[in-house]
Every structure is written in structure tokens, then in C-alpha cells.
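Batch manifest line 429
LIGAND: carboxymethyl coenzyme *A
JOB: complex structure
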Amino acid sequence: MSTHAKLIVDDKEYLLPIVVGSEGEKAIDITQLRNQTGFITLDSGYMNTGSTKSAITFLDGEQGILRYRGIPIEHLAEHSTFVETSYLLIYGELPNKQQLQHFSQLLSNHSMIHEDMRHFFDGYPASAHPMAILSSMVNTLSTYYPESVNVFENIEVQSTRLLSKLRTIAAFSYKKSIGKPIMYPLNHLTYCANFLHMMYAIPSEPYEVDQDMVKALNMLLILHADHEQNCSTSTVRLCGSSLPNLYTTISAGICALWGPLHGGANQEVIEMLQKLKDSDMSPKEYLGKVKDKKSNNNIRLMGFGHRVYKNYDPRAKILKKMTGVILSKKGIDDPLLDIAMEMEEVALSDSYFIERKLYPNVDFYSGILYKAMGIPINMFTVMFAIGRLPGWISHWREMMEDPDRKIGRPRQIYTGPTERPYVPMDKRK
Ligand code: CMC
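JOB STATUS: finished
ARTIFACT:
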């Protein structure tokens, strides 16, 4: 393969270096483009722009491949735990027994939040969306750990502290929303069991954590743990590039995740399926509305389509199977699963979806599984955030260790008015 690409502008030739990744992905390095030619590149939505080199996650959207640090997502979902996968993402290797014990111990040590922070939950209205509470509370952590402004110090403590506390904040915000007393973490429990305990136990009764749900939760969080340069991870990198503390940086990522085109889609999927059930509308009828672009109704089939996957999202494949297994094991008959499966079948044989290569994504089935676990709908995106946190942290750390790190600062092509005078008020039309 050539080492350079040739660019011809106004009859002048420029050579731009070609960069090749370990899986053969190719890029043209345009770092010197503006210096050499006076031109910038324009790429709305960053459809063709690589913002960084990264050794964390490999994704081939055409073939439906996803690997964390080289290990296929299918293997991790079947054999790993969320804590082990978090270690893999952050440190690049699977931990040995001692490393895993040490990492788990650190997570246990940091599971509580400062007692004063508990009172903040009372300040939010009962209708507050838990994603707003989560992002605010994560940013608030920086006020309790002012040393975190030294972003190059105590990276281990900051990372594990946040990994552990995010789950506590999420569970506390749920308890607040239903008006029940918060449950403190129990550090002898595993990460996922501890979360379920904080969510569902009440002080007046014994609570036994359901091991099937622990397994399902581990798998759900593993599937969400990283997805290379998606919207929220790119937000974490962009925000982090100006060197604010880790908590503030992750808080920005949580905000980006909230949107319905990104992590917020899991909530939208269930609301869509529920609407169909309540109104007795068939999936075919609904898809008719989705395809009807003339009426400008802007309805999308939520949980379908992806910027990168032009094939079945491997995470959706695993989730669909696991959802069926858990529902039948628990004897849950959820009509929304039947509607979702019918919707998928009809969509995948419809030319609109075939031509545009639109397949179910990770959000299509995850909500049905969360629902079976008793997670309320407005907490679905919070669950996504808990899952994605090790990915965000890994990318932040990779960026901080990069000797070529620079503040993220895209350019633009200005299309507004050219220079004109200031007009005094009495002369304006
Ligand atoms: N339903 C109907 N049409 C769709 C959908 C959909 N879900 N997704 C894309 N299209 C159509 C779109 O209208 C466009 O058609 P046309 O060429 O006629 O204008 C074409 O497919 C390309 O769409 P796009 O919006 O240019 O594609 P994108 O890569 O910018 O958007 C997406 C990707 C995920 C935002 C989009 O597929 C979507 O809105 N999906 C629904 C929301 C969703 O499920 N989001 C979760 C994504 S996966 C998890 C995550 O990242 O958080």
C-alpha cells in the first residue's frame, strides 16, 4: 500500500501520510493540511473523521464485530464480569487473581458517598430525571475531592472512586424518586449484587439478591462498557482535553449520553413499544409512519440504525437471546417482547430498512431486560451510563497519557455576513 495520498489543489500537489491501524483500518493524516495548503476539511457529524488513534476497542460495523482490547464481546459477555471487563478496558489486560482482588477491594473501599451529599438528593423535585441528577452529582464529587484538579495525580484513586460511587449515586437517586429510605452499600457483595441491593432492599425486611439478575446485569453492563469514539466518549475526550478534573469530564459525557439519539434511545424504545400496545397499533402500521417522510413527522424506529453498524449490532444479538432466557426462566410474559420481535421481523424484510442497512442496535432489547429486572424506565439511560463509565475512563486515561495530546478545537467555514458597520438604534429599520 502507498505510504502517502496525493492531493491536488490549484494544480499544486501535496503528499499526505497514510496511517494504518492494527486491524488494517486506513486514514489520511491531514494534521499539516492547513499549514501546507490553507484548506481545512469539512465533515459534518464527523462521519469520516478519526479524532484519535486508540488501542482500546475495535469495531467493524460492516461485519458486526466488537472487541475490547482484542477480546470479542461475545466471549466477555459469556465469561467475564463487569469488574473484570472494566479492569481490561482501563489497564489493557485481563487481571490475574491478585490484581482482580485488589481492584475489587478498591471499588469496595470507595462505595460510600460523603454523607452531606445525601442531602442534595432532597433538593431535586420528585419529577427530576435521574440523568440530570446523575450528571450534577458526578460533577459535585469534584467539590469533595478538590485535589482532583491535579488531573495527572492520583489517577488510580480518582478512577476507582468514580466507578464505585456512580452506582451508589444511581441507586440513591432511584430511592429518592420513589420516596423510600436509601440503602447503604454492603461491601461484602459483588459490584452488581451491591447495586441491586441498594436499589431494591428496604431496611425493614431481609433481601436476597437474585443471582440470575446479577448475571444479567453483569452482561448488560459489559455490553455497554465501551464503543470507541461514540458521541459521549468523544464528549469526554473533548471536555477532558482542556484538563478539567475527571468528575467534571465524566459529567459532560453523561449529558451527551442522555440524548434520544444516543443512550436515551433505550427509554424511547420501551415508550414506543408501550404506545403501540396501548393503542393496538400493529408494527407494520407503525413502520408505515416511520417510512412516511412526506408528512414530515420525523418518527424514527427507535433502537434501530447506527452510525457505524451497517449489519446486526453484535450487542443486540446477545441481548435478544439473554432477554428471552431471563424472561422464560423468571416466568415473565412481557407482550412488549413479542411486539419488539415482530417489529424486528417486519423491519428487516422491508426495503426501506434493507436499503439503508438499518438493524436493531443495543437499545432495542435492553429496555425489556431492564424492565424484567424491575428497573424503572427513566433509569434505563442511567444504567447505560454505569456500563459506559469504564470506557469513558479508559479513553480519558489514554488521552492523558498521549504525548501528542492537544486541546480539542475544531475549525469551521464561516457563512455569516461579511464586515458591516454598527447601526445606531434610531437608524435601524
Ligand atoms: N428509523 C427510521 N429511519 C432511520 C433510522 C431509524 N431508526 N435511522 C436512520 N434512518 C434513516 C434516515 O432517515 C436516513 O434516511 P434518508 O437517507 O432517506 O434521509 C438514513 O436512514 C440515514 O440516517 P442518518 O440519520 O443519516 O444516520 P446517522 O448515522 O446520522 O444516525 C442514528 C445514526 C443512530 C442516530 C440513527 O440511526 C437513529 O436516529 N436511530 C434511532 C435512535 C437510536 O436507536 N439510537 C441509539 C443508537 S445505538 C446506541 C448508542 O449509540 O447510544
